[in-house]
Design goal:
The complex is a heterodimer of chains A (416) and B (122). With 416 residues, chain A is of the alpha/beta class. Helix content of chain A is 21%, strand content 34%. In chain A, strands 1, 2, 5, 6, 7, 8 and 19 form a seven-stranded mixed β-sheet that branches. In chain A, helix 1 packs parallel to helix 2, helix 1 packs parallel to helix 8 and helix 5 runs parallel beside helix 6. Chain A is globular. Chain B has 122 residues and is α+β, with helices and mostly antiparallel strands. Chain B folds into two domains: 45 residues, N-terminal domain of TfIIb, CATH 2.20.25; 62 residues, Roll (CPE0013-like fold). Chain B is 16% helix and 37% strand. The relative contact order of chain B is 0.16. The chains are: A alpha/beta (416), B alpha+beta (122).
C-alpha cells in the first residue's frame, strides 16, 4: 500500500505528539507512525507525578500529561497508524513500514524523527560475572510493575542514580519490595535532587556515591552482587569489596537516543549525544528530515521535550510550504565544562532568539556562561550553579549572533 | 534559635532552603527562588505531605493495571496505610481519567482518582 503525507512523524510519544499537533496547525496532511498499540510512549508507564510543571503549570502524572496531547491529536484530522514499525527511511523521504496489513510505502514532504531513547543495558556498561535472571534496566522493571502487573523481585539493589532508578526505588518500596540501596559510580547523584529526597530519603534508602557493582553472582536467579568503592578514575579500590545478597539488580545508568533508523538514512550523529547533528530548525544534515525529543538528546523533563517538538513541527511545516531557505550557518561547539550543545549549527542571521540547550560535564557550584567567537569573549552570563543532571537553556540573541560571523564556543567559567 | 536545611521538592529547581527557627516557628527562610518554597518549608516542618501514585487492578481493560493518584497530597506518614487500600482495590473498564476510584481514602479527605482513561477490550 502507498500513502502520501505532508509531514510524517516517526514515534507517538510526547515528542511525536507535540510535533504532530504543531505541524497540523499549518493545515497540512499529517501522520504519526507508532509501533505500540496506543499513543503516549514511555509516559504511559511513568505513573508518578512531576510532569507538566513547566508546560501546563500543573503537577501531572505521565499518563495525564500524555492523555492531554492524545486528546488534542484525536480531535484533529491527523492520521494515526498504530502497531506500525518503521523499518527504513530514505534520504528522499520515502518511508517503509510494516504492520498487520503488510508493507507500507509512505512518501513524506517532511519527516520528524521522534523515536525517543533506550536504556543502557548491562552489556553497555560491561559488568562482569555470571548471567542469571533478575538483572533488569530500571525502565523494564517499571514496565513490569506499572503496565503488566508483574513483580520483578523481592530484594533489590539499584545501580546508578538516574531518575528512573530513584522513582523505582520508591515505587518498589511502596509495593512491599525491599530496596537495599542505590550505588552510584560518580561522586555525585545523577538524578534530580527532588527525587533523591522524596524517593530515597523519605524511605531511608541509602545512596552510596563513588561505589559500583563489580561482580554478579547467581546460577539461575541472581543471588548476590559485589560492590566496591572507586577512586577518582572510577577504578575499584581493593579491599573495599562488599557482598550484598539480593535477587534483583536494577540498572539506572543512562539513556541513549534511538537512532538506528537515522544512521541507515545517512543522518550524521553527534558523538557527544548519540542524536543527530541539527541546525537551529532542528533539521538534520538531510534536508526535510527533522529530529526532536529524546531521539535528539536525552532530556530530564518532558516539558522541554514538548517545546522542542513544537519547534520541529513548526519548522517541518514551514519546509513543506517552502518557507525555509538554505542559509549560511556557523558552528556552535562545547567549550570548557560543557558536554554538548543542541543545536550544533545556527544561521549567521537570525530574527529572534535561538534556544540553546546544553549540559555541563561536572557539578559547578558557581560559574558563568561564557560565549566566545574566535577566542574572543562576546558574552558573559550571570553567576549560577550548574549540575550535569540538569539540562540548561541559554538564549542566543540576534545581537550576539549578528556581530560575530565566526563559529561560537559555549563554556562555563568556574568562579573560585 | 536553631536552623534547618531543606531541599525544596516542589519543582525540579530543587532550591536549598536555609531556615531559621525559634520556638518551632519559622522566622526566616533564605535560598528559595519563589514563594512556593516558603509554603513548602512550613508544611515540611509541621505536617509533611506527599503526592501518591500507584496502580489498581482493572478487569476488561486494554491493560491489566490502571494508574491512579491521590487527588491532593497526603500526610507523609499515611502513605503505607493508603497503599494497603489501593492494593485491595479492583475496578472494571471502561474508566475515564479523573474518575474517583476510592472516595475519601482512609478518612483523610483525599480521593484516589484514575490518572488515565482506559477503554474496554472489544
Amino acid at each position: 500500500m502507498e500513502f502520501n503525507y505532508d509531514v510524517v512523524v516517526v514515534g507517538g510519544g510526547p515528542a511525536g505528539l507535540g510535533a504532530a499537533a504543531k505541524a497540523k496547525e499549518s493545515g497540512l496532511k499529517v501522520a504519526i507512525l507508532e509501533r505500540n498499540f496506543e499513543l503516549g510512549g514511555i509516559l504511559n508507564q511513568c505513573i508518578h507525578s512531576g510532569f507538566g510543571l513547566g508546560y501546563f503549570g500543573e503537577d501531572l502524572t505521565g499518563p495525564e500529561y500524555s492523555e492531554r496531547f492524545i486528546d488534542l491529536i484525536n480531535e484533529q484530522d491527523i492520521e494515526i497508524l498504530l502497531n506500525t514499525m518503521v523499518i527504513e527511511i530514505t534520504s528522499d523521504r520515502e518511508i517503509t513500514a510494516v504492520n498487520k496489513n503488510g508493507l507500507l510505502k509512505i512518501k513524506a514532504g517532511a519527516i520528524i524523527l521522534a523515536m525517543g531513547c533506550r536504556e543502557r543495558t548491562r552489556g553497555a556498561i560491561k559488568i562482569p560475572g555470571s548471567r542469571p535472571s533478575g538483572v533488569f534496566t530500571a525502565g523494564q522493571a517499571q514496565r513490569y510493575m506499572n503496565l503488566e502487573n508483574l513483580k520483578p523481585g523481592k530484594k533489590v539493589v539499584i545501580l546508578g542514580s538516574g531518575d528512573i532508578g530513584l522513582i523505582m526505588a520508591r515505587r518498589m518500596t511502596l509495593e512491599g519490595i525491599k530496596v537495599l540501596g542505590v550505588y552510584e559510580l560518580m561522586p555525585y547523584a545523577n538524578g534530580l535532587q527532588r527525587n533523591i529526597k522524596q524517593c530515597l530519603d523519605d524511605f531511608k534508602i541509602p545512596l552510596h556515591l563513588s561505589t559500583t557493582v563489580i561482580d554478579i553472582i547467581g546460577k539461575n536467579r541472581l543471588e548476590a552482587v559485589i560492590v566496591a568503592q572507586v577512586d577518582e578514575k572510577g577504578n575499584p579500590i581493593e579491599g573495599t569489596e562488599e557482598k550484598i545478597e539480593c535477587d534483583t539488580l536494577l540498572l539506572s545508568t543512562g539513556l541513549i537516543p534511538e537512532n538506528e533508523l537515522s544512521v541507515k538514512t545517512g543522518i550524521i550523529l553527534n558523538k557527544l549525544t548519540n542524536g543527530p547533528l541539527v541546525n537551529a530548525n532542528l533539521e538534520t544534515n538531510i534536508r526535510g528530515i527533522f529530529a526532536c525529543g529524546n531521539a535528539l538528546h536525552v532530556h530530564d523533563l518532558v516539558d522541554y521535550v514538548t517545546k522542542e517538538a513544537e519547534l520541529a513541527g513548526q519548522k517541518a511545516a514551514d519546509f513543506v510550504r517552502g518557507k525555509t531557505s538554505l542559509s549560511e550557518n556557523i558552528e556552535v561547539t562545547p567549550g570548557e565544562n560543557v558536554r554538548y550543545t543542541v543545536p550544533n549549527y545556527i544561521p549567521t542571521h537570525i530574527d529572534g532568539a535561538i534556544k540553546l540547550y546544553f549540559r555541563v560535564t561536572k557539578p559547578i557550584e558557581s560559574g558563568r556562561i561564557v560565549v566566545k567567537a574566535n577566542g574572543k569573549t562576546i558574552f558573559t552570563g550571570k553567576e549560577d550553579a550548574f549540575k550535569p543532571s540538569e539540562m540548561m537553556i541559554f538564549y542566543l540573541t540576534p545581537k550576539v549572533v549578528a556581530e560575530n560571523l565566526s563559529d561560537l564556543t559555549v563554556a562555563i567559567k568556574e568562579e573560585k | 534559635m536553631n536552623s534547618e536545611i531543606l531541599v525544596c521538592i516542589i519543582c525540579p529547581k530543587a532550591c536549598i532552603l536555609n531556615i531559621e527557627m525559634e520556638n518551632e516557628k519559622i522566622i526566616s527562610i533564605l535560598g528559595n527562588k519563589c514563594k512556593r518554597g516558603v509554603d513548602y518549608a512550613e508544611k515540611e516542618l509541621t505536617n509533611p505531605e506527599r503526592a501518591l501514585s500507584s496502580t489498581v487492578l482493572i478487569k476488561g481493560g486494554v491493560l491489566p493495571l490502571l494508574p491512579v493518584r491521590s487527588s491532593k497530597a497526603l500526610p507523609k506518614d499515611s502513605l503505607i496505610k493508603v497503599m494497603e487500600v489501593i492494593d485491595k482495590t479492583e475496578v472494571v473498564a471502561p474508566v475515564k481519567i479523573g474518575d474517583i476510584i476510592v472516595k475519601n481514602v482512609s478518612n483523610l479527605g483525599v480521593d484516589i482518582i484514575a490518572s488515565r482513561s482506559m477503554r474496554k477490550v472489544i
